[in-house]
Amino acid sequence: MSIGSLFLEVLFIVFLVVINGFFSCAEIAIISAKRSVLDKLSSEGNESAKLVLDMKNEPERFLATIQIGVTFVSTLGSVVGGVIAVKHLKPVFTIIPISLIRDGAELIALTIVVVILSYALLVVGELAPKSLALKYAERIACFAAKPLSLLSKCTGLIVGVLTSSTRFALKSIGVKDTTGEVFLPREEIRYHIREGRAHGVLEETEAALLHGVFNFADTTVKEVMVPKPQFTAIDLNTPEDEILHFMTESGFSRYPVYRDNLNHIVGILFNKDVFRVLESDKELVLSETIRAPYFVPNSIMISRLLREMQRRKLHMAIVVDENGEVDGLVTIEDILEEIVGEIEDEYDVEKGGLIERQRDGTMVIDASVSLLDLNDAGVPFSEDECKEFNTLAGFMLGKLQRIPRGGEFTTHKGYRFTVVDMEQFRIAKVKAELLLRPDIKTRASRSRASRAAQGQSPTPPNGIRKPEAET
C-alpha cells in the first residue's frame, strides 16, 4: 500500500467535497439573493450582479448547470472512494485472523468509505455552504456567477437538453412555464410586513400604511362613503341668508344640493363660488352657482375611483345604488383615509388646532396659518394675495400697515378679521367671522317678513338637510 498514493487520493476527495460545497452554496445564494440589491449593484456597473439577475430570470438553465456539476463531482467522488476502499482499506481487513471479517473485508472497507464520504459531503458539501449562502446571499451569488456562467457555456448542449426536458416534463403535467416571471403572493408580502414590524424593521405607522395599501385595492366605495342619512345637503330653494348662516356653522367647503329630496341631487355648492358671487354684489341663485355632480356606483373600487377623481380634478362624488337612488357621498379624503388612517384637517380639528371653529360660527385662527390653507377652509383669498402675504399674520400687517393691538380688525371679502392675541410684537391669534352684507341682510329680512305674512315659518322646513341623529 503506497502512502503517497493514498494521500493524493484523499486530497482529491477533499477537493471534490469543496467543489460540491461551492455548487450547493452558489445554488442557495442565487435563489436567495434579493433582486432589489442586485438591481442596485447592476445599475452601478457590477457585471456579476447582471449575470445573477439573468440566472434568476432563467432558473432552469442555472439549476441544470448546478446539477451537472454536483452529479459529476458526486460520481467522481464515489469512484475515487471505491478505489480507496478496495486498494487501501481492504488489505487491512484481509490480514485480520477472523474469517468473518476477512471474508467481508471489501464490504467493510466500502461501508467505512461511504460513511466518511457521506458525512463530509453533508457537512462540508451541503449544510455549511448553504447556511453561509443564506447569510451572505448577494456577495456569494456575485462571486459564483462568472464560474457558473463559464460552466454553463462549456456544457451548453447538455444544459440545453436538460432544460428542454425539464420544461417538457412540467408542461406534460399541466404546470405553466413561468420563466422570467417574478411573483410574490400577497399573503407572503403581508407576512413580511408583520415580521418587519415584530422585529423593529418597520415602524407601526409604516406597517399600518403598507397594510392600508393592500386593503385599498380590495375596498369598494360603499365601504368608505358617508351614508345618505349622515351627510349634510342644501335644498335648491334655500334662501341666501340661511345658506350663509349654515356655511359659517358647518365648517365644510362643499355641499350637495338637492331638489325635493336627497334622491335628486342636482349639483355641488362650493364656498368659494358663493363668496365670488357675494363679492360681485350679485344675488345668490343656487341653480346658477352650483357645479354638476359626479355620480358613481356603490360597487366601484376606490382605487379606480381615486384615479378617476384625480383625472377629473374632483373632490366629491355622489354614490348611487343599483336602482339609481342616492346611497351616500364620498370625498377624496374618505378614500385616502383607507391608506393613511383618519385625517384630522387643521381647519376642522378640535380645540387646540390651528383653526378652531366656535359654536357661534366664528373661527379662532393661529396667525401662522397660510392663506392657502384658509382658502381650502372656505375663507376666500386670491392667488395673488396668497403669494403676497403667505400667512394670515402677514395679511393682517399688510392690511393694517402697523403692528396692531388686541381688538383691532380689518374686513375682507365678507369676513371681519380681529386680532385677539398678541405675543409682544407678533400676531398670535385672529378671529374670523363671516359678515352678511347690508343688502343681503335687508333681502333676508324681507324674505322672512314675506314668509311670516303668508303664515309660513320664517325658516323654510328642510332647507338645510342635516345628518339624522343616531338612535
TrEMBL record:
Residues in CNNM transmembrane domain copies: 2-206
Locate the CBS domain: which residues? 225-284, 289-346
**Where does the UniProt entry say this protein principally localizes?**
membrane
Q: How does it sit in the membrane?
A: Multi-pass membrane protein
What the entry lists under InterPro entries is as follows: CBS_dom, CBS_dom_sf, CNNM, FAD-bd_PCMH-like_sf, FAD-bd_PCMH_sub2, Ion_transp-like_CBS, Transptr-assoc_dom
Protein name, entry field: Magnesium and cobalt efflux protein CorC
**Region annotation (Disordered) ranges:** 443-471
Asked whether the keyword Membrane is assigned, the reply is: yes
Species this chain originates from: hydrothermal vent metagenome
Membrane is among the record's keywords? yes
Recorded GO cellular component terms are: plasma membrane
Q: Which Pfam families match?
A: CBS, CNNM, CorC_HlyC
